[in-house]
Design goal:
The complex is a heterodimer of chains A (about 425) and B (about 325). Chain A has about 425 residues and is α/β, with parallel strands linked by helices. Chain A is about 40% helix and about 10% strand. Chain A is built from 12 helices and 14 strands. In chain A, a hairpin with a 5-residue loop joins β7 and β8 (about 240-245). In chain B, the strands form 4 sheets. Chain B has a 5-stranded mixed sheet, sandwiched between helices. In chain B, a hairpin with a 3-residue loop joins β1 (about 10-15) and β2 (about 20-25). In chain B, α8 packs across α9. The longest helix of chain B is centred in the C-terminal third of the chain and has 27 residues, at about 240-265. Classes of the chains: A alpha/beta (about 425), B alpha/beta (about 325). The interface between A and B is medium-sized, with 23 and 20 residues.
Chain lengths: ~425, ~325
């Protein structure tokens, strides 16, 4: 255990020194006590990530802020490492001998991992070790109850009003969650475990009194289409009216290929396990329209609807996510097959913590990646959760004593094996995607 | 009703030749510059009242009136004297007792006092020559810092070369080589992702060119400079004696700069192996004459320069690059 901590420190330390003026990424890092020369691949990966993120920040000052912050963080880590080394060198001779032995051993092991022809296998123990902390853990589950149910309308104690005029059904929800610690599937579940927020990306009219009839016409034709294809459980129209389109007990085709994980479980194919809530909205509004994706009324409605769903099904705030956070493309192993609410989802206004802070499970658990198009969809502010996921990936790779590249490949192999086993659970419904 | 005045974000390039203030006001970068020079004339009440009436920058110091800033050059021409220089070779001029007073006056004229206590402000400082750790740079930086602090600012320094990178290389993720060819010296910085990797100076600049050209043709350096700024350009052969002398000493500066760069980059122990070629920006007043960039590029390509360059460019306004960089640095922390 002690040796693992030691190894982790060295690895993180050498990654940390990446942006210091003395050791730049492509530098051949000298093999001296405490520096592992073969960390260059990991270092390069970190620098590449920094470059990639910086490149999508349009504002020059914001880009410089980001780069300087990154440099400062790594500089601080490098100093910690230097301090650690000073202490180590000040230790008694016997301990120092062990220290040197370990350093050389680690260097050789890491070097072996970097030789191109070396066996590219990593023992598949329980991967990865680190479990994300629930950033929204402090958000209490609200208390909401049904007050009245009429023919097509339900009224709840928090003011929520749901219209069932377009209600349809598919098949009863049935899915298995996967225990991320024990690494096995659970019994079949029927209760929703979370909520995925979407935008309909449908035709919209300017939100003006003069456009009332257009706004209503658009909303109704959209609802009819969504009901026909069972696309979401709930739709919030531009006036903030909430429509239940697919029964809560059934699955809907809202999430397609998607992955999420909380502290205990991994969810794959969220059509079954999560409820889909869509805002009638367009991310890129036509010119002359408001820049806000959602109207004030929609945000208010989303808040009371989320409260009701969380109260009814005991949904953790951490499992209330946007489609962009969960959507993946297993063919390319990239995030962001769909990018709705890739930025600007009003998590706090909806009564949730900052959901963009949660590490992205597809990255940390299965080695997914992303491209610049996805980062552009994030807007000017790259999610903290994306950053946290990458950092966690680097830590996990270091704790396994391997390079980021090899670790990511191992996670991907694991994903493909896991995906095949999961597909047997609910092959036809789990991955159905909205058009 | 009270109104709150919003103070603009500021940056300051304190160069041997010019002091340039940059401010970001309502999302616009604005620049104002003053010549970092002065002349002294004997004090008379009449002269002072004329200065006040004509709004000429001046300060009374004992029995003298110090005319500073842009007008000082006209006065020097008028009285056929050399302008006095608060700075020399990139730092405070040790032989000029009134230098700091003049710099303070120019800065006050450009920026005024801080709008609020502790207002942040980045100012440019030169770097020592490669491999040299010289205390005179520390004195220069500390003195200017105190001067700015007296005006109510919370000053932070940034090397001129890095300021050029911040000002002009945003599109390459603040990676590349920034060069400020100023009056007293040329400052060079290689930065990688905004982090300065190698920073140094070459102690030759516009003043060296002016002084040596003036000696060669037995003229005043001030007159040579005025003529240079009127329209000097590199075109091979000059019938005009002044232009010919300027051309010779410009070449000398370029050769020295390229040699120093090649030596510094070749001998650097921690130089990164950059994956891609990096851009190089030439800025500063000395880089302004037409043909300077081409001449520099020719000499650099002929040398065994160890870093692969994607392009060499001169910004639209080379006099503002360093000031822009100081402003960007201040904005970064505002």
């Amino acid at each position: 255990m002690k040796s693992r901590i030691f190894r982790l420190r060295i690895k993180v330390g050498s990654v940390a020194s990446v942006l210091s003026p003395q050791t730049l990424p492509a530098d051949p890092v000298p093999l001296e006590p405490g520096t592992v020369g073969s960390d260059a691949a990991t270092s390069n990966a970190v620098v590449h990530l920094v470059e990639e993120r910086a490149a999508v920040i349009e504002d020059e000052v914001a880009r410089l802020q980001f780069l300087r912050r990154s440099a400062a963080v790594y500089e601080a880590a490098a100093q910690r490492r230097a301090c650690f080394l000073r202490h180590s060198l000040a230790a008694p001779h016997a301990w120092r001998s062990r220290f040197h032995f370990r350093t050389v051993a680690i260097a050789l092991l890491s070097a072996a991992a970097l030789v191109p022809q070396a066996p590219r296998r990593l023992s598949l123990g329980p991967l990865p070790r680190e479990v994300p902390h629930a950033v929204a853990a402090g958000v209490a589950t609200p208390k909401v109850w049904l007050v009245e149910r009429q023919a097509t309308v339900e009224v709840y104690s928090n003011g929520l009003r749901i219209e069932n005029e377009f209600l349809t059904s598919t098949r009863t929800r049935a899915y298995r969650v996967f225990d991320r610690i024990a690494w096995h599937a659970s019994a079949v579940e029927t209760q929703p475990a979370g909520i995925v927020f979407h935008t309909t990306e449908s035709r919209i009219a300017p939100f003006e009194p003069s456009q009332n009839s257009r706004l209503q016409r658009n909303g109704r034709s959209l609802l009819a289409y969504i009901a026909q294809h069972h696309l979401y459980h709930f739709v919030i129209d531009r006036f903030g009216r909430v429509f239940r389109v697919v029964a809560d007990t059934d699955y809907a085709n809202h999430a397609g290929q998607s992955i999420w994980a909380d502290e205990k479980s991994i969810y794959w194919g969220l059509n079954q396990s999560f409820l889909g809530v869509a805002f009638e909205a367009q991310t890129e509004a036509p010119s002359g329209y408001s820049n806000d994706i959602a109207t004030r009324a929609q945000i208010d409605a989303a808040r009371v609807l989320t409260e009701m769903l969380r109260a009814t099904f005991g949904i953790a705030a951490m499992n209330c996510v946007t489609h962009a956070q969960v959507s993946v493309n297993p063919q390319t192993m990239r995030l962001g097959y769909h990018t709705d609410w890739a930025a600007a989802f009003p998590f706090r206004e909806v009564g949730l913590g900052d959901g963009y802070m949660t590490p992205i499970a597809a990255l940390t658990l299965f080695g997914f990646d992303y491209d610049s198009a996805f980062l552009r969809a994030n807007g000017r502010h790259v999610w903290q959760g994306l950053v946290a996921a990458e950092e966690q990936l680097i830590r996990d790779a270091a704790s396994h004593g391997t390079t980021l590249d090899l670790y990511r490949r191992t996670l991907r192999e694991r994903f493909h094996a896991w995906e095949a086993s999961q597909a047997q659970v609910s092959p036809e419904d789990a991955m159905a995607d909205r058009p | 009703m009270t109104t709150t005045e919003q103070s603009p974000v500021l940056g300051l390039d304190i160069g041997t030749s010019h002091i340039v203030a940059a401010r970001n006001f309502e999302q616009n970068f604005q620049y104002e510059r003053q010549l970092n020079a002065f002349v002294s004339i004997p004090y008379t009440k009449l002269a002072e009242s004329l200065m006040v009436k004509e709004r000429i920058n001046h300060a009374v110091q004992g029995d003298d009136i110090l005319v500073f800033g842009n007008e000082s050059e006209q006065f020097a021409e008028l009285f056929h004297v050399e302008t006095r220089r608060p700075m020399m070779d990139g730092i405070l001029n040790p032989g000029e007792a009134d230098g700091l007073l003049v710099i303070r006056q120019i800065i006050t004229r450009l920026l005024g006092r801080a709008k609020k206590a502790g207002q942040r402000l980045y100012f440019s400082v030169p770097a020592p020559a490669a491999g040299v750790n010289d205390d005179k740079f520390t004195f220069h930086e500390t003195t200017l810092r105190e001067c700015l602090r007296d005006l109510g600012y919370e000053p932070k320094s940034i090397s001129e070369g890095l300021a050029v990178v911040y000002g002009e290389l945003g599109d390459s993720n603040f990676t590349g080589i920034g060069i400020s060819c100023g009056g007293g010296m040329c400052n060079v910085c290689l930065a990688y992702l905004s982090v300065p990797v190698l920073t140094f100076s070459v102690p030759k600049g516009g003043d060296y060119i002016d002084a040596n050209s003036a000696k060669a043709i037995r003229s005043l350096a001030t007159s040579v400079r005025v003529e240079k700024e009127k329209g000097f350009h590199f075109n091979g052969f000059f019938e005009n004696k002044t232009y010919h002398a300027l051309s010779v000493y410009y070449d000398d500066v370029i050769q020295s700069l390229v040699k120093a760069m090649r030596d510094a980059f070749s001998n650097a122990s921690s130089l990164p192996k950059l994956k891609q070629p990096v851009p190089l920006v030439l800025s500063g007043g000395t880089a302004m004459p037409a043909g300077f960039q081409e001449r520099f590029e020719k000499v650099l390509r002929a040398s065994d320069f160890p870093i692969e360059l994607s392009e060499i460019r001169t910004p639209a306004n080379p006099l503002h690059s360093t000031a822009k960089g100081t402003l960007v640095a201040t904005m970064c922390e505002s």
